[in-house]
Recover the amino acids of this structure.
């Protein structure tokens, strides 16, 4: 069993993904970005309430992992969850309606941006508590093991969560019970405003896997092929009874921790700019162009479809009724 | 009728339900030998001592169609899993718009009497009563234990079974045939006309002993055991107080913002019941302190039959 961390990028890996699959990955990554650009604008315009945490810059992680999963596999997300929802196949209309606080939203307006779930597609929810989802999705991994149908479960979490107790407790129990799990750390280098360098004993979260006797892999999280490759290998291992894998995706969020007008970003401007030049979407677009599988017209067609879908989602949300006040007491308990 | 202990009644309920439904499985830090023997390691899982992890895992497995039982053993051990209990289990069904049910049974022993000090003795159910989205009960007899556990396991929500550590070995009649006790139905453990005592778990038995003594003086005590804390049977309690006009609440927990305060509130905020009150409501609770170790100190902290009697005399004065 490989206990050492390895670093993967697709530069030295062959890509066996079909052009159609690659274009679908590009479409999903662009959908995440355009959805959030719209959500941010509508938030600042006062049409979306509370808080919105954007995933922009990290799209290759959600899409790289989810593109390697089956529809019946299950994932759990974080407060920064739009990307995972979209990558797992969530409906944009119901997502946008939830952000707009409407009855037709995924949570009937009870959850908002931080709590979108779709159990029908194996998306067990965005979770507002850092590290809050890790134990829940480990239970989904246990369920998959007990079901015995080869299913796997994926925990998405950030570098901040990797310092919390449930991360360690769950890695241990998943390793001890050989649960079919992927633990995917999206290391965007900041826990809210605080730099990981100030709070982590080791720079690589993946090295912690050694303490639990499972593979720990560092991946270029802005390289969707590398993420897909690492996830595919870990999924194969999990499905065949080999137990969990910890995959650390090094990435960066382009926007502040939350959307807020005029809020200063404490991060270094040159650092932000350097990561923007490593745009995961531009990377995939370049790869497709280099293969002769994408041209300007093709990209414009994808963009047009996405903008159309997002406009339709906003129209659906705006046309949907708000919940009735008396519905505040619905669903506290299940029948 | 045959007799079982409180603990045997609980295990019999769990075993019968596990035979009936293969989706039920059990997680705890130590396995219970008869359950392990019958159902094996696949369904009776020994976890690491990580309540946060296995409580969260119970939630996830429940959301995937299983019906987990997560046994915290001592209630104090579940405090390391408060995020999973309060932020996740209680809220997840509501927060996600009721997409799927989360049928989970949590088990936890409560109360004192074991001389094991503050970190192994507590009755913190009112902390959980305060959280929307959790059902919970606290039985006083083997019969109630079995019937309520059956309802809990069949319920589609997170339910906490609080179990009195003082009553584990106490015997009582339990029928052989299948039965379940619905949630939200209090039980009048003794009928009377002068004063109502609302008591839980061990203090039901202490109240019964007090009532027996006071009957010799011609004082007629009615004892109401709510059995379920959420949902709470306000109707039976109010009816009893309307009949007697006097209320004593006996609780092994401290009084502050507690179960006893809730009972006082549901009685006094109801105009029809308030109008019948002949005396102020009296609470007979533990002292508001962490539970101490020394026998002298522990028994100084907890209410018992003598304090219940004194409370009854006070409202009759």
């Amino acid at each position: 069993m490989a206990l050492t961390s390895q670093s993967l990028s697709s530069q030295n890996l062959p890509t066996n993904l079909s052009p159609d699959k690659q274009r679908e990955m590009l479409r999903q990554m662009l959908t995440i970005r355009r959805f959030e650009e719209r959500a941010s604008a509508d938030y600042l315009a006062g049409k979306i309430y509370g808080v919105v945490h954007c995933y922009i810059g990290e799209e290759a992680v959600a899409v790289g992992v989810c593109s390697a999963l089956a529809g019946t596999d299950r994932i759990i997300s974080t407060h920064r969850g739009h990307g995972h929802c979209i990558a797992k196949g969530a409906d944009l209309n119901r997502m946008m309606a939830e952000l707009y606080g409407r009855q037709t939203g995924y949570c009937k307006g009870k959850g908002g941006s931080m709590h979108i779930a779709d159990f029908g597609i194996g998306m067990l929810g965005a979770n507002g508590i850092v590290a809050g989802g890790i134990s829940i999705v480990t239970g989904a991994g246990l369920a998959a093991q007990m079901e015995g149908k080869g299913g796997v479960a994926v925990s998405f979490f950030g570098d901040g969560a990797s310092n919390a107790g449930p991360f360690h407790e769950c890695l241990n129990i998943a390793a001890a019970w050989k649960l079919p799990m992927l633990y995917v750390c999206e290391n965007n280098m900041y826990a809210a405003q605080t730099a990981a360098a100030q709070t982590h004993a080791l720079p690589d979260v993946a090295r912690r896997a050694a303490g639990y006797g499972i593979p720990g892999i560092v991946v270029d999280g802005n390289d969707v092929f590398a993420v897909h490759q690492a996830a595919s290998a870990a999924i194969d291992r999990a499905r065949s009874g080999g137990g969990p894998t910890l995959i650390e995706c090094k990435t960066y969020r382009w926007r502040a921790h939350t959307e807020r007008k005029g809020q200063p970003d404490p991060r270094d401007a040159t650092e932000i700019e350097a990561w923007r030049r490593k745009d995961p979407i531009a990377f995939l677009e370049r790869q497709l162009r280099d293969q002769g599988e994408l041209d300007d017209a093709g990209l414009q067609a994808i963009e047009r479809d996405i903008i159309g879908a997002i406009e339709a989602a906003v129209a659906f949300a705006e046309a949907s009724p708000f919940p009735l006040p008396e519905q505040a007491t619905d669903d506290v308990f299940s029948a | 009728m045959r007799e079982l202990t409180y603990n045997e009644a609980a295990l019999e309920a769990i075993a019968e339900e596990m035979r009936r439904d293969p989706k039920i499985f059990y997680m705890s830090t130590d396995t219970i030998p008869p359950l392990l023997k019958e159902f094996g390691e696949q369904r009776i899982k020994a976890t690491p001592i990580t309540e946060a992890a296995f409580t969260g895992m119970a939630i996830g497995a429940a959301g995937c169609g299983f019906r987990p039982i997560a046994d915290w053993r001592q209630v104090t051990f579940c405090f390391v899993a408060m995020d999973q209990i309060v932020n996740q289990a209680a809220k997840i069904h509501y927060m996600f718009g009721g997409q799927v049910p989360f049928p989970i049974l949590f088990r936890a022993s409560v109360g004192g009497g074991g001389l094991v000090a503050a970190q192994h003795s507590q009755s913190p159910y009112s902390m959980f009563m305060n959280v929307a989205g959790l059902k919970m009960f606290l039985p006083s007899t083997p019969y109630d234990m079995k019937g309520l556990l059956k309802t809990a396991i069949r319920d589609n929500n997170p339910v906490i079974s609080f179990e009195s550590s003082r009553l584990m070995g106490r015997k009582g009649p339990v029928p052989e045939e299948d039965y379940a006790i619905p949630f939200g139905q209090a039980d009048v453990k003794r009928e009377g006309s002068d004063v109502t005592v609302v008591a839980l778990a061990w203090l039901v038995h202490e109240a019964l002993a007090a009532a027996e003594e006071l009957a010799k003086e011609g004082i007629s005590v009615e004892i109401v055991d709510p059995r379920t804390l959420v949902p709470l049977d306000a109707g039976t309690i109010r009816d009893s107080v309307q009949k007697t006009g006097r209320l004593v609440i006996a609780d092994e927990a401290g009084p502050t913002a507690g179960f006893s305060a809730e009972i006082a509130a549901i009685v006094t905020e109801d105009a029809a019941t308030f109008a019948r009150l002949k005396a102020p409501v009296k609470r007979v609770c533990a002292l508001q302190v962490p539970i101490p170790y020394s026998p002298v100190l522990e028994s100084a902290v907890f209410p018992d039959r003598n304090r219940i009697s004194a409370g009854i005399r006070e409202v009759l004065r």
Q: What stands out?
A: The first strand of chain B starts at residue 3 and ends at 5. Chain B touches chain A at residues 25, 42, 47-48, 50, 52-66, 68, 80, 83-84, 87-88, 92-103, 132-133, 135, 156-157 (CB under 8 Å). The two ends of chain B are 41 Å apart (CA to CA).
